[in-house]
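Inputs:
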Amino acid sequence: MAKHAPVKITALDTYDIRFPTSRQLDGSDAMNPDPDYSAAYAVLRTDDPALAGYGLAFTIGRGNDVQKAALDALRPYVVGLTLDEVTHDLGGFAARMVGDSQLRWLGPEKGVMHMAIGAVINAGWDLAARRAGKPLWRYIAELTPEQLVATIDFRYLSDALTPDEALQMLRAAEPAKSARIEQLLAEGYPAYTTSPGWLGYTDEKMLRLAREAVADGFRTIKLKVGLSVEDDVRRCSLVRQTVGPDVAIAVDANQRWDVHAAIDWLRRLEGFDLAWIEEPTSPDDVLGHAAIRRAVSVPVSTGEHTQNRVIFKQLFQAGAVDLVQIDAARVGGVNENLAILLMAAKFGVRVFPHAGGVGLCELVQHLAMADFVAITGRKDDRAIEFVDHLHEHFDDPVTIRDGHYLAPTAPGFSARMHESTLVEYRFPDGPVWSEQTVAALH
Ligand SMILES: [Mg+2]
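Outputs:
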C-alpha cells in the first residue's frame, strides 16, 4: 500500500450464524412456535486490519439461507469504496444501495433485500463510530443537525415531515445535548422485559420469571398472547395478581388476528389495565390498526415488522397507533430509523424499541439513546425491550442494571460478535440441529 493511499473497503464478509433456541421454546409466540435465533452477519473489512464495521439482519432460522444471499449481492456496491466515502457520507452510502434500480425492483425498500441493505448500512455506521472512537449513540448525538438530516432520505415523507422541520427539531434539541449525555451516562435508559411471557412457558415458569423481573427493577412486563383467549385471560389475571397494580403489563399477538377477531379478543382483556397490544394484526394493515384502536381501550402498537418509513408515516397520519416499536435490523439502517424517530416525535407518538432475538438489544439501545439526547429529550415515559438471550456472543454486550440499559461506552454499534462464535455457530457446521431443521436442508 502506498504511504498515503486512502484506506479502502476490501471485503464484505458474510456469515450464516444460527443458534438452536427452539429447543427451550425461548422466543415462542402465537405465530413463531419454534424460532432458532439467527443472524445473517456482515463484516465490512478495510485494509487497516484494526478497523472493520459489523452489522446483521436477524432471522429466526431457515430465512438465513435467503438473507445471507441478499447480503452477498451487495458486495459490488461496497468493496473498493474509500473509508471516507462510507463514513463521511453515510447518506450517499445508503442511497447507492437503496437506489440501485435492479435491487430496488425486489422491494421497493422492503423485505429481504432491504433488510440486507440495512445490515450493511448499519455496518457503515459502526465503522464510522469506531473510527471516531465513540459509541454509536454518542456519535449520532454529536453530529450536527445538518449532518444528520443529510443522512435521511425524505422522498415520500415531505407530506408528513420536511427536511426543514427535521432541522428545526434537531436544532431545538441542541442546547440540552451535553446535559442529556451526562444524564444518560448516570441514569441509563429504561428497559422492559419479555422474558416471562413466551407462550411455550408454563404458568409456574411465567410467574416465577415475572416475580424475578419485578425484583430486578423492571416496571413493565410483556406477555405473548393470541393462541387461546381463555389461556390469555388466565395468564393476564395471574400475572396482574402477582405483580400488583403498579407494574405495567403489555401483550403481544405477533400478527395473529384479523381485525374483528382482534377487537373481540381484546375486549376480553380490557379489564387488566394493559399498557399496550402489540402487533394485533398484519403489520401492513394501517387502516386495520386504526379500526382496532377506535374499538378498544387497550393502546395499540406495531412496528417491529413495519417495513419502511412510508408505512410508519401512514400509521402516524391515520392515527392508527398509540405507540410504536422500531427495530434496528428491519428497515434501511440508522438513516431510515432516524426518519422514523423524527416523525414519531413530530406526531407525539412514544417509541418502545423492539429487541431480543440475537443482537437486537445491542443495536437498538443506541437508537433510543440517540433519540433521547438529540431528538426528544424523553426516556422515562418509554422503554427498550430486553430479553436475556445470547448476549454472551458479543464483544460489547448490553448491561442492564435495576431495570435500565446502561449507556455503552465502547466505540461502535455493539454488533461485533466474538470470532469464536462465528466459528462455532456457523451453519450448518455448528450445533446439533433439530430433525426438522436438518430435513429442511435436503
Ligand atoms: Mg413483538
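Remarks. The pocket of magnesium ion is lined by residues 252, 254, 278-279, 304, 354 (CB under 6 Å). The chain has a mean pLDDT of 95.
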